[in-house]
From TrEMBL:
This is Glycine cleavage system H protein. Keywords: Lipoyl. One of its GO terms (cellular component) is cytosol. The gene is gcvH. The keyword Membrane does not apply. The keyword Metal-binding does not apply. Pfam families: GCV_H. Belongs to the GcvH family.
Amino acid sequence: MSFNYPQDFRYLDSHEYVRLDGDIATIGITEFAVNELGDIVFLELPEIGDLLTKGETFGTIESVKAVEELNSPVTGTVVERNDPLIDDPEQIADDPYGEGWFLKVRVDDLDDVNDALSADEYRAQVEGE
């Protein structure tokens, strides 16, 4: 199966993605992760105003197969949360890079994403190329 990895995103080896737009980072999970999880039944996210720390857990995602911690690719403050996903987490699978985003975070240090993987590096890691 072939997955999509947008080139303008950066990726964590724990399958989160981050896309910067100025100092706002959009965070979610990759299409590969959604496929691995299967049917997603629960999503726990922080509140608006909460501080995320790069490398720390900020929530959980649960499927019929597993419960996985979500790790932050950046340090910053949550400015927006995709609340419809909390009520209907199956939506994540429909469009993980678009409507399936989790959080928008005002980033403290834009260099946080520099050590995240490029699309090609992430693809090589998950697909074993």
